[in-house]
Amino acid sequence: MVSNDQELLGAAALMAFKLNGQFLELAEHLARPVGVTATWWQVLGAVLHTPLTVSAIAREMGITRQAVQRTADVLVGKGLMEYRDNPAHRRAKLVAGTPEGLEAIRAISPHHAVHAAQLADLLGRSEFAAAVATLTKLSEALDALDLEPCAGSAAPVPPSAVD
């Protein structure tokens, strides 16, 4: 049993890291047969319904703009995505899926549906929905955290000192 706030935060973080690994493994399992990676699927999926800027995709996914840019450049090179002019911003192009990219995403859908149904059966649909709601609430709370250094806290340890 977790006994204090710090232990709760640590336990939540460790579980989130484990879940991230599990979701990435599942995503690779689903994407590989159609010739895409989990990362490609993630970026393509972000623009499935509407073109977005690289920055908007990064914000939505909680990853760096640079990582999205590298992936988008690869996908554009492979003909799965394209850059479009953005009427709202001259320099920030919109990223959109091509018909080939959208077809790759659609090809994943049947297996995705099978695994989603299996997971819903294992958890129970209402428990599954409650888990998603709790994860959403946790994400919103993390977004609301004040990440400024705390008054009186120790100076940050340089990464080289941790190794």
TrEMBL record:
InterPro entries: HTH_MarR-typ, MarR/SlyA-like, WH-like_DNA-bd_sf, WH_DNA-bd_sf. Residues 5-140 form the HTH marR-type domain. SMART domains: HTH_MARR (SM00347). It holds the Pfam family MarR_2. Gene3D superfamilies: Winged helix-like DNA-binding domain superfamily/Winged helix DNA-binding domain. This is MarR family winged helix-turn-helix transcriptional regulator.
